[in-house]
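FORM 12-B: Structure-to-Sequence Request
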C-alpha cells in the first residue's frame, strides 16, 4: 500500500515535523517541494574544524595522506616483469622459474590466471597452469604465503578442485 498526499498535505506534514521545504523548479517549470534532509552531504575528507585550526601545509599533508595508496592486505607489492603485472614478488619469481622450464623444453607453455568453474557458481582462479609438450596438464600452481594458505575460502576451493576436477593444487 502506497501513501499518497497532495502537495498541500505534504507541506502540512513537513510543517508539523519542523522540516524545511526548499522550492526547486523541475523541468516542467513548476515549483516542486523537496525536503532538505534528503539531500546527501558532501564529504571532503578534512573537517571544517581542522581547516580553521590548521595552516595550508597541514591541510595539504592531510589530503596527501588521504590520497596515498592503501597498504595491501597481506603486505604484498605489485611487480611488473617482461611487461606482465603480478600481484606479488613471490608470484613473479614462480613465473620466472616456470619460464626457465619452458625454455629448457620440459614444458610447452605456462598459462596465467586460469579460471575453473566449481559447483554452486564458484570460480577458482589458478595463478599458473603448466602444459607438457604432449598438451596435457602438468600441474596447477598457486603462489601462497603461510597466511593465505589458512584462508577458509581457499581451503574449500582447493577441496572442491580435488573432488570435482581431480586436480591437486600445488602451493608454492
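FORM 12-B RESPONSE
SEQUENCE OUT:
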Amino acid at each position: 500500500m502506497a501513501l499518497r498526499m497532495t502537495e498541500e498535505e505534504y507541506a502540512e506534514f513537513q510543517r508539523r515535523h519542523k522540516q524545511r521545504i526548499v522550492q526547486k523548479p523541475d523541468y516542467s517549470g513548476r515549483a516542486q517541494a523537496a525536503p532538505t534532509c534528503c539531500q546527501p552531504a558532501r564529504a571532503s575528507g578534512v573537517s571544517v574544524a581542522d581547516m580553521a585550526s590548521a595552516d595550508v601545509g597541514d591541510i595539504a599533508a592531510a589530503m596527501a595522506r588521504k590520497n596515498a595508496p592503501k597498504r595491501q592486505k597481506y603486505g604484498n607489492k605489485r611487480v611488473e616483469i617482461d611487461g606482465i603485472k603480478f600481484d606479488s614478488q613471490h608470484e613473479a619469481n614462480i613465473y620466472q622459474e616456470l619460464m626457465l622450464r619452458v625454455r629448457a623444453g620440459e614444458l610447452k607453455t605456462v598459462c596465467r590466471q586460469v579460471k575453473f568453474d566449481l559447483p554452486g557458481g564458484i570460480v577458482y582462479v589458478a595463478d599458473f597452469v603448466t602444459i607438457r609438450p604432449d598438451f596435457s596438464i602438468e600441474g596447477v600452481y598457486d603462489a601462497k604465503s603461510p597466511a593465505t594458505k589458512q584462508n577458509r575460502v581457499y581451503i574449500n576451493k582447493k577441496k572442491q578442485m580435488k573432488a570435482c576436477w581431480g586436480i591437486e593444487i600445488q602451493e608454492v
